[in-house]
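Notes, p. 3: input format for complexes.
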Amino acid sequence: MDGRPYFISVEEARAICNATPLQTKVEHLPLDACTGRVLAEDLASKVDDPPFDNSSMDGFACKFDPEATYPLSLNIVGLQAATGENEAQTVSAGEAVRIMTGAPMPPGADAILPIERCEVDGQRVRLLEAPKPHFVRKKGENLREGVIALSEGQHLTPSRVGLCATMGYDTLPVYAHLNVGIVSTGDELKSPGQPLKHGEIYESNSFGLAGLVEWSGHHPVRFPSVADSMDALRQTLNEAAKTCDIILTSGGVSMGEFDYVRRLMEEEGDIHFWRMKIRPGSPPLFGLWNETPLFGLPGNPVSSHVVFRMLVAPYLRHNLSTEAPKEWKVRAKLCDPVKSTKDCVTLRRVTLVSTDEGMMAYQPRHQGSGNLESLASADGLTLLQPGQSGEVGTWIDVLVL
Ligand code: AMP
Ligand code: MG
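Output follows (401 residues plus magnesium ion):
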């Protein structure tokens, strides 16, 4: 490999990829287009939340009197609804105002008794117990104007988009989607829907990878699969480099005679590393094709998926300074023996069952890297470190799929 990094650890591979940053752009979108996007700037609240003292209950507002005894009868002097039109009825001793949830506190009142504990009789109300100051939501108690509540890189979940509206934002700065080109290679590949001849299989990687790109919050650009030829591959990669921010290829990166992605990248591209210490998925390469970052993913369907999760997804996150989509690791006890390896992180497909003792991991399927069903029916991937035992009863980390 001419001194280029070869068969390196996951951490080394990630560091090499991260040394080639992507150009990211910021766009401003209306709030209702922002769910699922990544925030590109810190956001300070434009207002106090809540903007005024208000009631958290339907009931009566009055002044709390530490000397009073209950039941206590008060004069009803007004009604305060949750509305911008406030009559601002002042409350004095011996008086109460009927108040609705979210309505501004009348001047002079500092406590609320919920309606269930009040008896109304014409213009009088009987409080069965003391009104409660804690039913008043104080101005700014959730958030003060000027305080940064959301930071660059945060994933805009539905509650965060709602919070942006609460803070007074109608548009948000978010990172633009990256266009991720997906090029599968192999003479044997046929598009689903067409009849298969002996020796052919349905092309599945580009569909799975497109789903992973969308899951990552970006835009997949699927190219028609390319035959095993230097010319055909060169032409498609040139096209992809023109229109995409990053290219993913699948297949053709192993040691086979027809592994043209590796050959073309060696002869005409720029390889930054080849092969990484994970199993399945050890063949990937990373480099530049016409200045565009290119991940050469393995052809085996499980391997291409696993390498996306272990290498491509972390690279995309790194470039947007985000944790999204968040990776969840859980501790789980192995309930079936799992074959680990000495030098690789072993990523077996397991199903997870939550029990009183914690999470249990089972490996019900045969683990061939061509067995996509074993991935489709799994909940997680074992993160067995090099040399770590995969015996029954071992507690291990599992990456949730
Ligand atoms: P390769 O890395 O090109 O040697 O491919 C390894 C294995 O993955 C072979 O069995 C291929 O037929 C299979 N394979 C390669 N590309 C795809 C694809 N896009 N969809 C499904 N299987 C594939
Ligand atoms: Mg191939």
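The chain has a mean pLDDT of 96.
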